[in-house]
Give the backbone structure.
Amino acid sequence: MVVLGSRRLSRTAEFFSAGSLVVPVTAQAECPVVVVGDAEHISQQPPYVVAGIDGSASATAALAFAFDEADLRGAALRVVCVWQRPLIMLDDEEVALRAQRTLLSEASAGLSEKYPDVHVTHEVLTGHPVEELARAAEHALAVIVGRRGRGGYTGMRIGSVVHGLLDRAHCPVITVPTG
């Protein structure tokens, strides 16, 4: 694991800053990368970890890491999937939300058995993934996501959600590469 501090630069400043290591290390490390920007401000009990999943291989690796992290810390785990309403709906909204709930339960089924002491909740949130994950993790020990999800360009080393969380989240952001 690599742990980095962040000066909380804007995306543009981070990109153009010659001394910034956050994005390049996050994009290229072969191990999980933790980026710590703010001082810990846990105010909810029990403490919890947030795992953001989207059905990608990277999210699967992140969820396994999140279970392990929650178990090590004696924390609860909030497994979150964010559904962003498309411009053109081909299915009923309830059908789409049901598919997201199925994704959540299937993704964590085996892991819940492996970590019986971890209290797990599943949440389907509606909105922009960065904003909703940052809000869900506002008082979390950490937010854990895969390095890149299903969307975007396949050549990108890290996804737009990771970029956004590095700017927006107030807790440590842990990115996990695909196993």
The mean pLDDT is 84. The beta strands are 2-5, 33-36, 48-52, 76-83, 120-126, 142-146, 173-176.
